[in-house]
Amino acid sequence: EQPRANSKIVVDITAGGDRKKLNPAIEKVCRFVNIYAGAGKDPVNVDIAIVLHGDATLDVLNVDAFERRFGVAGNPNLDCLRELHEAGVEILVCGQSLHAKHAKPDEVVVFADVAVSALTALVNLQADGYAYIPLK
User: Fold this and answer.
1) Is the pTM of this model over 0.85?
2) In which residue ranges of the chain is pLDDT below 50?
């Protein structure tokens, strides 16, 4: 099977990881983008959205908030997330998870949107024809 043009994919990211390293699920989304961008074949149009919640929620915090919370230099996820955003990937984070983890919407990077909840974002995107892919 080759990538099909006009595909729609929503990736549900729930797992966190080592706060000093890139979240492996975010790295996988980068691979999805590369596959659809060509990977030796002609590029095809694809719409990709990611929804972060659960332990992945805090991966979208801006540098200052991430450093305060985890005591590390920088947020290792931001370069990949920025590149995904620039490639047209919609990045959503669960507002309910932010609240549960005592983080504020203004601590989220400017290129990610805060959804009311991951549940509503996932339901809406699937209703819009996005194929659901869970990543842990």
Assistant:
1) yes
2) none
